[in-house]
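Here we describe the complex-level prediction in full. Unlike the single-chain runs in Section 2.1, the two entities below were treated as one system.
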Amino acid sequence: MDNTTPSHPTAADHAVDASGLVKRFDDFRAVDGVDLQVRRGEVFGVLGPNGAGKTTMLSMLATLLPIDGGSARVFGVDVASDPHRVRQLVGVTGQYASVDENLTAAENLYLFGRLLGLSRVHARTTGANLLERFGLTGAADRKIAQFSGGMRRRLDLAASLIARPPLIFLDEPTTGLDPRTRGQMWETIRELVAQGSTILLTTQYLDEADQLADRIAVIDRGRKVAEGTSDELKSSVGNSTLQVRLTDRDAAGHAATVVERVLGESPVLTPEAGGLSIALPDPNRAADVLIALREAALTINTAAVQQPTLDEVFLALTGHHSEHDTDIENEEVA
Amino acid sequence: MATQTLLPPTDAAPSAPALSARPSLRETVNQTLAMAWRATKKMRRNPEQFFDVTLQPLLFTAMFAYIFGGAISGSVSDYLPIVIPGILAQTALTTCMAMGTQLREDMDKGVFDRFRSLPIARIAPLAGPALADVIRYTIASTLTILVGLAMGFRPGGGVLGTIGGWALTIFAAWSLAWIFTWLGTVARSAQAVQGISLMIMFPLTFLSNAFVPAETLPGWLEAFVNVNPVSHVVTACRDLINDGALTAEVGWAVLGCLVVVAVFAPLAVRSYSKKI
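The structure predicted for the assembly as a whole is:
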């Protein structure tokens, strides 16, 4: 018996195939014409800052929000016209643990099992199995209110797996978790992928997308600004960056021309005066840049080689910082 | 962990891999029962939900009987046959009013997003709690009748008539709860639901024949009282409890309740499905 793929969709269909997705809230276009293709069996990451429209997009694909424009298909099934079928194909794990706080962990899984058509006995055994596999057996009869953030996420994910959906949406699965719990969550997600699930995940963290996703779409202000593998995205900003702060704040322009001569590409001036963010095609070139700056009699206060951050990917792709930093800049101007 | 699979074993998965376009009636019933199970679990953990249904019948029956009894019917014992069915109807309304507030509070929680994302009937998250709430209506109407009996009320309709009036009250409460369920799905906050519910509840109970005979009212008020569905429920309860008679009023009351369900249940499901 084949339980991983439903009979209706054909093998040719993408897990998700969306084109021109639009969601309006009054005048504000939260999602503004996004195309998205998620292949079967891959982990697709949607990367973007808070308020970029990631959750809204996921909510539309999960039939939680009506689609205002464009179309979306899940394994070939139209989301707008056939929501009940789509709900049978997708398991949703929310940004905030969407389990019932009034019930215990075991009762939660029993309830969702019953809702999904399992018999009483099956609902109970499936719940017990999932609790064991997610390391929650000891907390089975505890109230959710006493759960830690990591335990809630694991239970939330367990609840999404009861019906063995072929496609799983993970909305910021590790936001707010400590590094150790985050690592455990990543491990869990990798196991799911190994078992053939297709995963669409949203995240604010480049390293999370880097660790988990086969392909990544970068979303900003409701639009897709880039798409590709993690390596492709990172190479667009350099594998790492050299952050330099000049002693003479007004020499940034001069320094930029020196750097351009060495690397063939002009660096980005950081918001702080006298700061340069230099994309490095190869970390070993950092020394070349520093030597060239010294030869040009440009003295530096600090120098550091950094892995690209989401903000740098953003800066490179959109020409502006992610929302949070923009706010700070505006405050400084005002 | 590595040797285990995270996904549940295959025999526990829903058997049919084929997708259905909409939930069947049987699935809808099972999902509603699962939601009712959830609601009873909630009730057991928040026993304060039972305060109103236990205290109100005790308090209101005694209070209304002793305050209005002499003025309206000459004596408390003469007033009891009039006021007990009235308080039954009032209790039904006030206890089912809580539905809207509770649903609104519930819908603001994350778990409702999951309910919406599941392939379940849209009516199940609404009909489940409504079904579980029947427990509260049963407690309230049983206590009201018991308090009346303790105060010396001897129903002329006998055991069967009393049971009929009792059942009609519970049915009416379940039906009228759909008005408040609908309110819960359209209002923005639990407080708003509470406020609007009270504004509906007071005119419906007090501008009815629940506590005073309609003939004593000014003409325009009597006209409203006579079309008020609560009046029909009260009259039907009186016919059943005091006379043991299955009158036309009983038919009208049942029909009125059915109309309320037929109008407000679809409205509630529709606005629930659209809610963000």
